Every structure is written in C-alpha cells, then in structure tokens.
Amino acid sequence: MDGRIATESGHSHYINGHESLVHLHRLRALVDAVVVGAGTASADNPQLTVRHVSGTNPMRVVLDPRGRIPSDLALLNTNNAPTLHIMGSELQATASVAHVERCVLPLNASGQFNPKDVVTLLAKKGLPRVLIEGGGITVSQFIEAGAVDRLHLLVAPLLIGSGRPGLQMTPIETLESALRPPMRTFRCGDDTLFDLRLRDTTA
C-alpha cells in the first residue's frame, strides 16, 4: 500500500496474492513478448512463462545494457520459451545459442536503451504486443518515454515501510505536472487492481 515492490534487500516473494499472480500470467499469455531489466532478471531469476493459466509462452526479453546478467539465469538456460537478450551496442554480442537470441541496441546519454527503440525492435521481430513486467526502473523509463499504453498496478493490503519503490520517475515541482490518466479499479482477491490508460490507442 506504500508503493514498495520489495524490501531493501530485494525480497518480494510474495507481496501480492494468488489471484494477482494468475492475472499476471494471463497478461503474459495475451502478449507476444514480456520484458524485464537486468536488475530484475538478476535479483529474481524469473521464468517469465505462462503456468497459472492456459496459453502460449511469450518471447522473454532481457534488457541488459552493460552485459551484467549472470550466465546461470533460468532465462538463459531453460528452453520452455525463447529468450531475446538485448545488450548495449558497445558490447560484443556473443553468438545466439539454442533458445537464446542476442542482439545489440545503442545506448542514450544515461547509458540506457531508448524504450521506443526496444519497442521498434520487437515490432520488427513480429512481437507488437509487449508487457513491460519489471522492475520499477524499467517500467518508469517506458512510462516517461510515452511507450506504455496501459498500466496495471496491483496494490496489496501490506505496509512494508521501506525498500524499493514501484516507480522511480523524474521529480516534478508541482502536482499539475503529475499524470492523471483515466482509471478503473477491480478486486483481485485481497489485492486491488488499478487499470490506467496512459495513451489513447483508439484513434
């Protein structure tokens, strides 16, 4: 309820309840690609597959601008879904093997990928429907770049009181600059789902 997604040590299993986990897996089943940053991939070692509902596993995408994810991650060593490992253009992309494809993208002045470059790359690979799953920094970068159509925020009846924030965006001076998107709410077990429309895609 205080906007934290993990403790200071990175522990996050599980803040949300089972119904929220089912919702996440349903979202994975509806998209072509699911994206996480290198920090989330390294800390959580996620599978990023569809297990709690029926559906096809999406392409698993790891944004790794500095080439720092460990080689023993499940994403790189399990073949139940394909993986796209995107690294910074100053790095030498190692050969793609088995289910892992490696490619490079240029970095911006902050040493990160331009989110719209990532979306364009995925679209060119036939992956237009994309879920930016985590972590907080990666999600925030895509929101600030105007690359997110819908944002799903799941709030659990839990107060952590410290730790890692769910969003880390550029500071604003006044609330007039805050985003106030159209919103719907739904119960998701004991959790509350906030469905925010950040961009109008009907035009």
Task: Report on this structure.
The protein has 203 residues and is of the alpha/beta class. It has one domain: Dihydrofolate Reductase, subunit A. The protein contains five helices and ten strands. The strands form three sheets. It has a five-stranded parallel β-sheet with strand order 5-4-3-2-6. Strands 7-10-9 form a three-stranded antiparallel β-sheet.
Low-confidence stretches: none
**Rg calculated over all Cα atoms:** 17 Å
- Give the fraction of residues assigned to helices: 10-25%
Helix and strand succession?
A: EHEHEHEEHEHEEEE
Sum up the overall morphology in one term.
globular
Strand content: 25-35%
| Strand order in the largest sheet | 5-4-3-2-6
Structural class: alpha/beta
CATH architectural group: 3-Layer(aba) Sandwich
Please, what is the average pLDDT? 94
Q: How many beta-strand segments?
A: 10
In terms of topology, how is this protein built?
Blueprint: E1 4-6, H1 18-30, E2 33-37, H2 38-44, E3 59-64, H3 74-77, E4 83-88, E5 100-105, H4 115-124, E6 130-134, H5 136-144, E7 150-155, E8 164-165, E9 183-188, E10 191-197
Parallel strand pairs: 2-3, 2-6, 3-4, 4-5
Antiparallel strand pairs: 1-8, 7-10, 9-10
